[in-house]
Amino acid sequence: MQQSMSLVEALHTFGLTGPSLPSFVTSVGGTGEVIDVVADPRAVRNLPGAIKLATRLVPAVHAHLKVVGFADGVATIAVDASAGGLPAHKLLSLASSRIESSVAGKRLPYGSVRVLPGGQIELHVQRLLAEKTPDVQVQHMTFQDGAVVFEVNAPVATR
Fold first, then answer.
1. Fewer CB within 10 A of the end CB, N or C, for the chain?
2. How far is CA 147 from CA 49, 82, 109, 134, in A?
């Protein structure tokens, strides 16, 4: 069975955000297998000093996200981000501890979201959904025209 939802709905379903995106995300869209996100990092609190300085020069970050792999309930998402024409995705590793502490602060399973080398993020979709929908097995995840699309096996209701 295929299920489609917006990025906002998917992140909320995973427990990563509330019912709306964080205030620093100014735009979300997409075409084909890529989701486009525009963010204003000046709205992020407690940035490391070097990044905070850089946000004064380049206030908008444009990111293109694409699912490049899915296995055993884990999606690997490639992040291609730029700020003022510079490759901002290379700085993603600087945010890894912040991302991990944010996930821990939401009481989500440890390691549910990991920053990988080379501008990639590992998202343990099955682990994030297990508490809310334990009987649903996610077989695949991709992006399509700005939406997050899941292929799931749901149990058949019996009478």
1. C
2. 34, 22, 25, 23
The residue type of 38 is V
Q: pTM of the predicted model, to two decimals?
A: 0.86
**Amino acid code (one letter) for 13:** T
* pLDDT per residue as tens digits for the range 84-143: 887 877 777 777 777 888 888 888 888 899 999 889 999 999 999 987 888 889 999 999
Q: How far apart are CA 53 and CA 85, in angstroms?
A: 17
Q: Is residue 127 a contact partner of residue 138, using CB atoms and an 8 Å limit?
A: no
